[in-house]
């Protein structure tokens, strides 16, 4: 594999590269339920791509192979007490102009609203700014996912765009939400947290 293996740790969770041994656990979390609760909030207007455990393993290996040597791993598991609860990821909206977007999925609803998503995304954005010469990190969600928008706000992200009524789910229109934070805003937020003794 070409991706650089990654391990990021905090006091409550860790983010690490996906191993082959993780595939069964991830597959069960993502595909174990025919109508998973997490998918109702994570872009439900896009159908969940069907996979068997073997095709999922191939899909994951292909993702790693597409990364160039030395390029940071583009998807990590979120682990709490040695238990996988979700993933973080990044992708290039337009690599030539260094337009990078991040994503997060916590597949186990038992870990929702516990601060894990905010902590994981904070670590991940830190890692993005440390790993790439980017000016901004973006996050795209939709207007029904208020929990995700609150996470973005907690991290200092600004609402940069609202594309009105461009998503349809269960017969209703919703807005597409674009949020983002600039490197200097992120650095200032970190300085402020350090001054206040927050982690």
Describe the structure using short key phrases.
199 residues; alpha+beta; Aminopeptidase; eight-stranded mixed beta sheet; 32% strand
Helices and strands in order:
Layout: E1 7-9, E2 14-17, H1 23-31, H2 53-66, E3 75-80, E4 83-94, E5 99-106, H3 116-131, E6 136-142, H4 146-154, E7 158-169, E8 172-182, H5 183-196
Parallel strand pairs: 5-6
Antiparallel strand pairs: 1-2, 2-3, 3-4, 4-5, 6-8, 7-8
Structure notes:
By secondary structure, this protein is an alpha+beta fold. The chain has a domain at 7-138: Gcn5-related N-acetyltransferase (GNAT) (Aminopeptidase, 3-Layer(aba) Sandwich). It has helices at residues 23-31, 53-66, 116-131, 146-154, 183-196; strands at 7-9, 14-17, 75-80, 83-94, 99-106, 136-142, 158-169, 172-182. It has an 8-stranded mixed sheet, with helices on both faces. GO terms for molecular function: acyltransferase activity, transferring groups other than amino-acyl groups. It comes from Halobacillus andaensis. It holds the Pfam family Acetyltransf_3. Residues 13-184 form the N-acetyltransferase domain.
